[in-house]
Phosphate transport system permease protein (Nocardiopsis alba), 321 residues
Amino acid sequence: MTTTDSPKAAPPPAGKRRIGDVVFAGLARGSGILILLILAGVAAFLLVQAWPSLMANTSNFLTDQSWDANSRENPSFGVAALAFGTVLAATIALALATPVAIGIALFIVYYAPRRLAATLGYLVDLLAAIPSVVYGLWGMMILAPKLVPVYEGMTRYLGWIPLFAGPASTSARTLLTAGIVLAVMILPIITAMSRDVFQQVPQGHREAALAMGATRWEMIRLAVLPFGKSGIVGGAMLGMGRALGETMAVAMILSPSLAISFDLLQSGNQTIAAHIALQYPEATGYGVSALIAAGLVLFAITLAVNMGARYVVARGNKESA
């Protein structure tokens, strides 16, 4: 009695791809092209809408600090002070949030018990779900009044440092307060990215460090942090991109004013996104076009930050490989 083998599917001829592979590859390629088209479309829209005000502007758009764009005869406006405030606020937020986020991620992955780690991870992720207006209300009504005596003490004891020169704002609605609120807002992004990277460190690297007599901190310093460097930088840049474009929280905290000042304890700085939100309801004439021109600058800054993050991450992955 003979048995026959069940028929098997014949392999596709050499050089011929299956229909499913072709369709999937086409969809993936089309999605990538669609993203580029959308990005180019946004840039083109901003440029076209901003062009009339840029041509009619009687001052240097990149260097002027004033903003008088509603006049149809002689609009005069510049984005220098707004761009400065935007970058400074995001830098403050990044400097405050990154060390805390790395510490939280390390504690969740390597120090906390499993149940506590799961709870902390959930709570940190929950911060990302809080609306921006809630952060703004918290910063304006609770955080700022609590910081008034702190700022006065910083002015008294650290006033010799230019960043903390007095007199301190009596309302504490300054760029430093906005930076603290932004730091809390971007904390979940950096923490989540860092936590995922730390969890992907090869077990062999960690065990090899411990087998050579390293303590847990030495294992983290010698094996974990070098492996996750590119991921940390990428997460920090993504967080900075969020901080650059934040609108409502910053608009509710900062007093509307235009100036280029490194005095973090005084009022006087403003960001592009907050300025657009505050000025748009009253914009007339070339005012709307001028605000779109400011948005174009914000678009360029955010794009540059994200492209820099991608470059750093790609370079770090290449070095790790």
